[in-house]
Amino acid sequence: SRVAAVIPAAGRGVRLGPGAPKALRALNGTPILIHAIRALAASRHVSLVVVVAPPDGAAEVKSLLDAHALPERTDFLVVPGGASRQESVRLGLDALPPAYDVVLVHDAARPLVPVDTVDTVVEAVRDGAPAVVPALPLADTVKEVEPAAVPGEPEPVLGTPVRARLRAVQTPQGFDRATLIRAHETVTEDVTDDASMVERLGERVVTVPGHEEAFKVTRPLDLVLAEAVLTRRRL
Ligand code: C5P
């Protein structure tokens, strides 16, 4: 079986604060997106990486890829993305050549995912799971609330799911290609990850162990943490 990775990188990244789109921000001098591409291409299973660029930024992303060293044995495609993460992933899937029957979807915003995590996801799909998500237990207790109309106002707590049954899920999420395409054709509700679309089809989704270094760079403090991880790796 052949494995392709789709990397949605079309988000604005407003929660990081003002500046360039998140995927183009630098970590220790290299754009977040380049770190993410290298992390996926580091897996010997992955032979194609499809990067989904901001809708008006495909040319810029192409020249970014040309300007950085990437593995020779991996093919790269750049396609323009859409208004939502979901639409960006679908546009990436549309660009996949037929030979690829396993698809990884990986957030550009998770630049430091270790190659062992990527390989574990691929192996679980190859072992027959139609959808696989890397997951970690939670440190925080989670409350369900009635969201306030005005941010910062007190919010009524509706309940507390049992923490031991909850998992924080990461990417890459891995899929049987046909299953993921059917999910994107069928599910129209807004979702925050691809596996939840497969869940809505009634298909089996399983977790494998995630990794703390696969965290999503979302807020300004995450940039500090990511650079610290990179510096530690070089030691
Ligand atoms: O906003 P969030 O951090 O959940 O975004 C997750 C990933 O989805 C990011 O890599 C972001 O670039 C991508 N995205 C996208 N197209 C959008 C919105 C987000 O590719 N329209």
Automatic annotation (TrEMBL):
InterPro entries: IspD (IPR001228), IspD/TarI (IPR034683), IspD/TarI_cytidylyltransf_bact (IPR050088), ISPD_synthase_CS (IPR018294), Nucleotide-diphossugar_trans (IPR029044). CDD domains: CDP-ME_synthetase (cd02516). Its EC number is 2.7.7.60. SUPFAM superfamilies: Nucleotide-diphospho-sugar transferases. It catalyses: 2-C-methyl-D-erythritol 4-phosphate + CTP + H(+) = 4-CDP-2-C-methyl-D-erythritol + diphosphate. GO terms for biological process: isopentenyl diphosphate biosynthetic process, methylerythritol 4-phosphate pathway. It comes from Streptomyces bauhiniae. The record marks R163, K216 as: Positions MEP for the nucleophilic attack. HAMAP family: IspD (MF_00108). Keywords: Isoprene biosynthesis, Nucleotidyltransferase, Transferase. This is 2-C-methyl-D-erythritol 4-phosphate cytidylyltransferase. GO terms for molecular function: 2-C-methyl-D-erythritol 4-phosphate cytidylyltransferase activity. The record marks R15, K22 as: Transition state stabilizer. Catalyzes the formation of 4-diphosphocytidyl-2-C-methyl-D-erythritol from CTP and 2-C-methyl-D-erythritol 4-phosphate (MEP). Pathway: Isoprenoid biosynthesis; isopentenyl diphosphate biosynthesis via DXP pathway; isopentenyl diphosphate from 1-deoxy-D-xylulose 5-phosphate: step 2/6. Belongs to the IspD/TarI cytidylyltransferase family. IspD subfamily. It holds the Pfam family IspD.
